[in-house]
Write a structure and sequence with these properties.
- It is a single chain.
- The chain has a 5-stranded mixed barrel with strand order 1-3-4-6-5.
- By secondary structure, the protein is mainly β.
- The protein has a single domain, classed as Nucleic acid-binding proteins (OB fold (Dihydrolipoamide Acetyltransferase, E2P), Beta Barrel), CATH 2.40.50.140.
- It has 2 helices and 7 strands, in the order ββββαβββα.
- Strand 2 and strand 3 form a beta hairpin.
Length: 160
Amino acid sequence: MARSLNKVQLIGNLTRDPELRYTPQGTAVCTIGLATNRTWTTGTGEKQEASDFHRIIAWNKLAEICSQYLVKGRKAYFEGRLSTRSWTAQDGQQKSITEIIADDMIILDNKGNAVTESSEEPTDTKLTKSGTRKDKEIKEEAPAVKESEEELIPPDDIPF
C-alpha cells in the first residue's frame, strides 16, 4: 500500500477576526483568514515581496478557543490538512475552494490576555482540536527555574 501525506503548517497574521458559527447539530465551526508573507531576490538582485491568503477552518473546542483568543493582526501557527470542496453557484458556474482544516493552533504573540506582560513565561500556547494544551508536557521536561511568588501568573488569569 502506498503511503500519502496531507499536512499543512502555516505561520502568519490573521486578516480579520475569526467567525464562529454552529451547525444545526450544535457543532462549533470557526473560519479564520490568515496571511503569510514571503520575500525573495530576483536574478537582477531586486527584492520582491508577496503575500498569500489562506482560509482556515477549526471545529469543536478548537473553534471556540480560536474565536475567543484570536483577533485580526494576531500572529499564530496552524497545523492541519488541505481540503478542497466544490459546489454549483446560483449562476450555474462550478466553484471550488481549498481550505486548511486545523488540528492544532499556537498563539505566537502576547497580544490580548494570553500572558501578562510581567511574566517570564513563554507566550507560545499550543492547542489541539480537542482544546487541550500541549505545552504542559514540554514544560515538565524543562529544568526547574526558581521564580518569586510575585512573578507567577494567578491560575484565574490563565485562559485555558
